[in-house]
Amino acid sequence: EMNEIDEYVEENVREEEKPPIDLSGVAEGKNIVYIAAESMQDFVINEDLNGEEITPFLNSLIEESYYFDNYYHQTALGKTSDHEFLLDNSLYPLPNSAVFFTHAQNEYHALPEIMSEKKGYKSYAFHANNISFWNRNVMYETLGYEDWYDVESYEFSKEDEIGWGLNDKMFFDQTVDMMKEIDEPHYAKLITLTNHFPFEMPQEEATIDQFDSRSVTLNQYFQTVRYTDEAIERFFEKMKQEGLYEDTIFIISGDHYGISSYHNESMGEFLGKEITPYDEAKLQQVPFIIHIPGHDESRTISTVTGQVDYKPTLLNMLGIENEKDIIFGNDMFSEERKGFIAFRDGRVVGEEYIYAGNICYDAETGEEAEEGACTEMKEQAAQELNYSDEIIYGDLFRFYDFEKGEILVDEEEDVEE
Ligand code: GP9
Ligand code: MN
Question: Which atom of ligand 1 is the closest one to the Cα of 79?
Fold first, then answer.
């Protein structure tokens, strides 16, 4: 089986050419901070509510960053943890379970492990919730994280909580203090919490109006999104004050949707259109921002990209050759990409077509496309999901040499032993 998968990846996924925007090695030796903005969807970016920017800080940061405005989350039941899995492995999450829970003892070839082996990076995770939520303590060990800081590491009282726990502003504040103590160069993953369903927050803390619709969830969402935006701004300020800003590359993204399709009617009111399956697929976009201090170029890139692309993108930025890896994503800056992003539920977003709700749409116009225009892309997506599942269910990476790109042993034989 590993042979067949390796052949598929060689023919369909691995790149032949270097990206047109060449960021190879730009991150080498620098610290990397990845911020997972809980439930942050892309539709709030560069958007107003009652004439007020929803995310003023992120909007201004984008002016000095690479911003991918056609980047999709691909998570399933495992939500935040699925997103972490996708990013670190460039494999798909599972269809019926959270892989962080069910396959945390597998052999993986994850980003933290590669960064450590090839460039001596240490990886850390910061999150003000209980570490055992999503079985992170077990999976982080498996994926090669050096250490993690959870709710136990943060000091706060009941009144510092919003929604699920410690508010994002204090979270970032204390995280910077802890980041001063960790080894360099490091990869630090910071996972926010305030903008979590059901998006409730004390109104005296709110700095933007609620929306006015039948969906209380959507109405409140803008306020918690704004709160996280402000928290990230404060984080940047503190990183600068502490002298940590210059030597760090910042990546900010959303982990998955916040507003489910249950709220389509109200979402339609906000966006000023009726939500079709096409729009619903596009609403799975989450922001993706790469900010490199001192780097002149800034750009908005509209290539179809997704969480499966994170690993090869970051590895290229780190100048790490990883040609024989088994991954299902591409460097986001490359023009040589396979051209679609597969959702776990069978939907597929391609450069030309979008397959959603059993309809094939023209990606540009949202009009229904001719029957069959999506077939090839749809079949290839299904194939990839299947391969990825086989890797995880069969723990197949035990049989693969990632340096040589060779199958280690005959799987059948091994199983019989
Ligand atoms: C849990 C937090 C939220 O620690 O990451 O998880 P979610 O419910 O979004 O998967
Ligand atoms: Mn989440």
Answer: 10
